[in-house]
């Protein structure tokens, strides 16, 4: 072995090969070492370049929903459009060109109407299918100030119904997608984009004035029930004009779409839940809505229940990005949100410009509710009198609004016994215990009647019920069949779920 090594080291070729190998190893080691050192220096430099968070420097943060706030890579065309928009908003855009672009609106609405529209400030809350079409129509019609509020991003599934989104916009905030696309159409429009969730806690800030001008109208295009109710209630209480879009999902008949007061909306689960929650807050009418009267039927799309395996995983609520947010894909025909959104925009354009249009219908059933309240007062007085009570000055803790809520939202304007919609009244379901009259306050007598104790019947049915149950010896189970008992139980259970919103 030693002789082989000796011979090898004396060979000239072997010496060259050995030298080359050693040199290669040394060079490779030097290069790797240099790259490692350089990488360490670059990381150190990058860390050193990051400024500390201070009042002078606010870092761009991810939103609490994981969406990148205001972060997207604009194309060259986007940059040119943004530059033009900046100049246009600063006045570097010929007004004659704007009027020419709005010429058809101008001859329709007149100069005065168009001027009102151009000087208006509109807030759109929810920038999906309905909100994007409403925004696009308002901008194209001349509205100069638009605030867009939405926490969500454009997804691939958004493209079947979104007004302006393209494949390039997937993953970007919806508010900025709309802004950058519409700036290419109406560069003079000022877009105030808020990539955030609307909520009751933030309503005052999000619906505040822009450049000293309060909103002329608010568009509700939200599909989360809590946010929707919070927005409508805030606008109602603060007298801010608002129009709400109800559910476009599972709808396919454009001839059934109507604009009316929220008290008249029917055949729409989202409308029903919204209306009922608002009634619980004391808001029963005065909010225009776009809704569809189309009813579900055989072969039509419907929101299917979640598979059983999803329930077995735990809390279904955890499947959603937000509390009470939909966790299933809602079947939506792409044309329907567009029609809803355009109807919303059309109503706002007519309202602001002063163009004549039909008065939004209302049920105007206050007189009926007053009559039902009077009948209930009579029932309660007769019941108290049969127990030997002095009924002079007896008061009920039930208001006209409560009557409307029970009749319309809980019992759907029909008797629980016969299903008849006429000559309705409310009465106790079960005989009360003794002591249902509170006389603890001197000079005041009031019934301890609660809304959850009342059911809806016709007057004839209520008289019989009073005789046999309330003043007789029978229980409801002895008087009514299984179907009636199940209906009453279902209505009362449903009302229990809604009591937390009152």
Automatic annotation (TrEMBL):
Classification via Gene3D superfamilies: NAD(P)-binding Rossmann-like Domain
Keywords: ATP-binding, Ligase, Membrane, Mitochondrion, Mitochondrion outer membrane, Nucleotide-binding, Transmembrane, Transmembrane helix
Key word Amino-acid biosynthesis present: no
One Gene Ontology biological process: cyclic threonylcarbamoyladenosine biosynthetic process
The protein's role, per its UniProt record: Catalyzes the ATP-dependent dehydration of threonylcarbamoyladenosine at position 37 (t(6)A37) to form cyclic t(6)A37 (ct(6)A37) in tRNAs that read codons beginning with adenine.
Identification of the protein by name: THIF-type NAD/FAD binding fold domain-containing protein
GO CC annotation: mitochondrial outer membrane
Highest taxon listed in the record's lineage: Eukaryota
Family: Belongs to the HesA/MoeB/ThiF family.
InterPro entries: ThiF/MoeB/HesA, ThiF_NAD_FAD-bd, Ubiquitin-activating_enz
Subcellular location, record wording: Mitochondrion outer membrane
Molecular function in Gene Ontology: ATP binding; tRNA threonylcarbamoyladenosine dehydratase; ubiquitin-like modifier activating enzyme activity
Main subcellular location: mitochondrion
Transmembrane segments annotated in the record for this chain: 12-34
Recorded topology in the membrane: Multi-pass membrane protein
Source organism of the structure: Lepidopterella palustris CBS 459.81
Domain THIF-type NAD/FAD binding fold stretches: 104-360
A Pfam family annotated for this UniProt entry: ThiF
